[in-house]
Amino acid sequence: MSTELPSDPEESPPAPRPAPREVWKKGGRLLSVLLAVNVLLLACTLISGGAFNKVAVYDTDVFALLTTMLLLALLWILFYLLGTARCPGGVPYRDAHAGPIWLRGGLVLFGICTLVMDVFKTGYYSSFLECQSAIKILYPLTQAVFVIVQTYFLWVSAKDCVHTHLDLTRCGLMFTLTTNLAIWMAAVVDESLHQAHSHSSSHSNTSHTRLALDLERASSAVGGECSCDTAVCQIFQQGYFYLYPFNIEYSLFASTMLYVMWKNVGRLLASSTHGHSHAPSPLSLFRETFFAGPVLGLMLFVVGLAVFIIYEVQVSGERGRTQQALVIYYSFNIVCLGLMTLVSLSGSVIYRFDRRAMDQHKNPTRTLDVALLMGAALGQYAISYYSIVAVVAGTPRDLLAALNLAHALLMIAQHTFQNVFIIESLHRGPPGAEPHNTAPKEPCHGLTFANLDALHTLPACPPTPRLVGPSPAGPQEASSVIVAPRSHWRRRCLKDISLFLLLCNIILWIMPAFGARPHFSNTVEVDFYGYSLWAAIVNICLPFGIFYRMHAVSSLLEVYVMS
Amino acid sequence: MSTELPSDPEESPPAPRPAPREVWKKGGRLLSVLLAVNVLLLACTLISGGAFNKVAVYDTDVFALLTTMLLLALLWILFYLLGTARCPGGVPYRDAHAGPIWLRGGLVLFGICTLVMDVFKTGYYSSFLECQSAIKILYPLTQAVFVIVQTYFLWVSAKDCVHTHLDLTRCGLMFTLTTNLAIWMAAVVDESLHQAHSHSSSHSNTSHTRLALDLERASSAVGGECSCDTAVCQIFQQGYFYLYPFNIEYSLFASTMLYVMWKNVGRLLASSTHGHSHAPSPLSLFRETFFAGPVLGLMLFVVGLAVFIIYEVQVSGERGRTQQALVIYYSFNIVCLGLMTLVSLSGSVIYRFDRRAMDQHKNPTRTLDVALLMGAALGQYAISYYSIVAVVAGTPRDLLAALNLAHALLMIAQHTFQNVFIIESLHRGPPGAEPHNTAPKEPCHGLTFANLDALHTLPACPPTPRLVGPSPAGPQEASSVIVAPRSHWRRRCLKDISLFLLLCNIILWIMPAFGARPHFSNTVEVDFYGYSLWAAIVNICLPFGIFYRMHAVSSLLEVYVMS
User: Fold this and answer.
1) Which of A370, A475, A510, B338 could link B7 by a cystine bridge, Cβ 3.0 to 4.6 Å?
2) Where on the phi/psi map is residue B461: left (φ > 0), alpha (ψ -120 to 50), or beta?
3) Of B477, B346, B502, B481, which Cα lies nearest the Cα of B424?
4) How confident is the model at residue B203 (pLDDT cuts 50, 70, 90)?
């Protein structure tokens, strides 16, 4: 949610007299940030107002605003694709770090899920067309068109460093970014209301009935006097709530890519070939690991899926089984988080012996990645600290409280050490960047040879150095054969570590994203803070926690490819 | 509240191979940021938990945590002053931009007020010593010692670029920063409770009595079974609540200075004399204006004070007079904000004709200043947008609603244009940096002469060019006498503008800081959002708004001196 400020004077090359264009860079940035802040605050006001049903802001107002924003952003994207991008000299440079393939791939994947969600939503609202405002059907349709156009736009233009229509492009990018964030906020609010609604229907005998009923009224107000009682309508309704996580991720993915494009507007790159990340051939991807990481990760993934299904089945049953489900859930999470903490720590230890140079080049994508990792972790940190205070100060000291405490503490440790590992990894150069202080300058990268004579007996620059097969080996060659894998051993370990962490992050993403809420099944925090306060804390912080997992997965994929 | 991330690769000089120290800079930063985030979240959890009296966190827990943090920070400061700073080569560079005199002066001023507050607090809690926990008296005493030591430390060391004990210094600075932020949070929460308490006592006939009574119980819980009924105790209690704004500002001032010190740890400066801001002689300070700015500003200041006093007196009376007080308050604010908007705009227009080069040097102080201006403005933006939605969607369309709407719109405009003006000003170089493209390179700065011959007849480099007195003037000299003030006219205007804005910001700071809350006297928003939601919005956002005014004043002072 932090608006980046147009305030870093390091942007400009440290030339004695920068060109006047640099002045305008700042002015344009300031202008577009101000535009974005104002639009975003207006959207935020309306969306949060619409969420409280005591407040006389109707959801049709929110839908109208969002539809208008979508249409305006659509207009600008079309202008960019047809006008700015086709200008001669409009896009002289392309930032090789921006829009990597997994980010664009994820965008397309989530975009498709969002389209399915839009179909479900349209179907749901069409079921009672006669007693609905037309804007409620118009909104998912507009969103579908927007998603298609924006995904194409980002796929094609994510790497662009635009140099024409500077101010217009900055404002357009910021406005599109704001639109995505507004959609994200609306989805988070909608999902929270739905969550509170399902909480109230399962716990309607508790004291929170009043608030829960309020929320129920709010979320069922979409029906007005008509109710959703046909089977098709029910399926549509259930379906679109399950697809919300994808819509949320889509908006965040698009936002990060738009932000990087915004940072790159008017940027001068030394040469367009600078910093091409080396693309490994897909065949060699899995040969470079010890298989321990992926195997262990996959095992945890499968066990985690089973635990998640057991949890979801049992928690909707009676009270005793909820208790049991929570014990299973927490135990699995404690094991998983403990292993991840240890593995991240060992990764950091390996880096202490790594001699690759730190990459100090300017790289807005990486800067943003690091900022997002640190910022998104705050959500889970906050939930954990509130849990710790509740457990330590609260009265019941049973098994569940102990598990909850261990879970919260490990969550903090895991986020911390994983962030340290990922950030350190992202700042390492590619394997070729290892400084050859002692070894002679050789085109064969990534190897330090103990025996210099042995160098010439090796095949010329093997793409992935490995044990040389059955060849006549003298005593000189033997030494190189022994020493070369020792350096390689580190890289393999790092690849194993990143794959293991990646798989663990996926399963830890699936659980909350598809509706596991031990925060509410477990009564410790609800009793300590009261339902409304605790719901506010969880509903604000958990989306960041979920986003953290997604983002960690994409960063770990980058670490895996780069190490 | 944004934790700065250790992610800007622009830090390092663009040398082909930076020294290994640069690697450690990032590691140390990451470590200290993680420490700060964790401590801050723990403090945040306890403080927010303590604020809700349904939650079983007692204020003694909060006081114990804060006292521990104060003592630890104190220990580190003493270690720094006696150890690190005295190391040979420990502080090789000093950042000339950091800790300018007005910031340090403000720190001392607010520090003294905080000390007075601590005396009042100690007196208040001593009044019922027998039925209080000892920690409640220990806390203000520890705070007083901390304020004295920290103020001395920042006065002496604000400009230091430390180069020994790097990691320890970073962690120490971040921990001290966190301590200040925790004190700030505790003060804001305490003040909000007090505000809600006084609201409840003046509006106890409304429907919000339940919540208000809850809050009253919470804030009067400090007394336990003892009550504060002696005259001295009452004075102490009233006094320390009036001094809270100063404590809040002290913590924020100290935080910004600590942050700049943290950014400067391990920084290499080209030379220690680089960037010395030119210090104008105090005598010439006021001669360089047209007096229109300061005079108009002072008039508004005096009128504002009168309006504030009338408002405070009338609003505590019956309902009809509250209405009248609000009309006066809003009218004054609308006039003041309108004038400020126009003046900021004209300042920006003047810059369009200014030919001074933009200063593109790296300057953490300025980067932070800009970020704080933009970030703190968000608080007032948010309040304004919520007001606008309430007024537009709400039912009553009377004079007060119209005034409220105009006030909110002008508030947004004023913050926007003032920020644009200040940010543009801060990025201008000092007057000497004007590029002499057409004029010959002369040591006499800031002047462009139409008649080159006239140059030699002027006295050598006058410190402030002015009309030459009764001296025998030929036709050549006359032209220089006419043209020289034309260039000077812009600088005078800018000085007038900054002084005017400065005085207006002071009066707009005084009003909310000393308790004017039209947000609650005016019933539009309270009725629209409900008391608790609106109180949450205002109590979270208004401290940022108040800080914005303070910060704008210090930035405008810098603009005044530099232009």
Assistant:
1) A370
2) left
3) B346
4) low
Min Cα separation B81/chain A (Å): 31
CA B151-B154-B155 angle, to 5 degrees, is 80
Neighbours of B76 (CB within 10 A): 20
Q: Please compute, for residue B189, the number of CA atoms within 13 A of its CA located in the half-sphere on the CB side.
A: 21
pLDDT digits (tens, 9 = 90+) for B91-131: 888 888 787 787 888 899 989 999 999 999 888 888 877 77
Nearest to A153, CA basis, from A75, A52, A60: A75
Number of Cβ within a 10 Å radius of residue A201: 10
Chain A hits for B2, CB-CB cut-off 8 Å, are 2
Residue from the list B7, B14, B386 with its beta carbon closest to the beta carbon of A371:
B7
Chain centre distance of CA B437: 38
Show residues of chain B in contact with A27, CB under 8 Å.
Answer: 424
Question: Looking at chain A, which residue has its C-alpha nearest residue B28?
Answer: A420
Task: Tell me how far CA of residue A498 lies from CA of A292, A337, A339, A343, A503, in angstroms.
Answer: 11, 15, 13, 9, 9
CA distance A55 to A66: 19
Q: What is the ipTM of this complex?
A: 0.71
Task: Give the model's pLDDT for residue A217.
Answer: 44
Dihedral angle sign, alpha carbons of residues B437, B439, B444, B447: negative
Partners of B424 on chain A (C-beta within 8 Å) are: 27
Helix B364-393 to helix B244-264 angle (10° resolution) is 140
Burial of B447 (0-12, 13-18, 19+ CB in 10 A): buried
Which of A46, A61, A367 has the CB atom closest to B7's CB atom? A367
Nearest to B214 by CA among B199, B228, B234: B199
Cα separation, A234 vs B249, in Å, equals 55
Report pLDDT digits (tens) over B329-351: 999 999 999 999 999 999 999 88
- Residue predicted with more confidence, B244 or A446: B244
* Residues written for chain A: 563
B22: Cα separation from own chain's centroid: 32
- Bridge partners of residue A428, in order along the sequence: A358
H-only helix segments in B223-291: 231-242, 244-264
Q: What are the Cα distances from residue A369, in Å, to A344, A376, A468, B8?
A: 18, 10, 39, 11
Domain limits, chain A: 27-200+229-264, 283-429+485-562
By C-alpha distance, the chain B residue nearest A3 is B375
| Disruptive mutation site among B24, B267, B358 for chain A (greatest number of A CBs within 10 Å) | B358
Question: In this predicted model, which residue has the larger pLDDT, B201 or A338?
Answer: A338
More confident residue, B517 or B19: B517
pLDDT surpasses 90 at A406: yes
| Residue contact B10–A5, C-beta within 8 A | no
Chain B residues with CB-CB distance to A393 below 8 A: 49, 56-57, 61
Q: Is a pLDDT exceeding 50 seen at residue B144?
A: yes
Residue B319 tokens, joined: 């309902």
Tokens of A334: 């404690």
Alpha-carbon distance of B461 to A358, in angstroms, equals 50
Whether the pTM exceeds 0.80: the reply is no
Q: What is the mean pLDDT of residues A416-421?
A: 93
The conformation of residue A243, written as its DSSP 8-state character, comes to: T
Look at the block and give the residue holding tokens 């004990």: B165
Of A18, A382, A528, the CB nearest to B55: A528
CB contact under 8 A, A389 and B17: no
Q: Do A362 and B9 touch (CB under 8 A)?
A: yes
| Inter-chain residue contact A8 with B420, CB threshold 8 Å | no
Minimal Cβ distance to A41: which of B361, B382, B393:
B382
Q: What confidence score (pLDDT) does residue B179 get?
A: 96
Proportion of chain B in helix, strand, coil states, percent, rounded to 5: 70, 0, 25
Both tokens of A397, joined, read: 């000291």
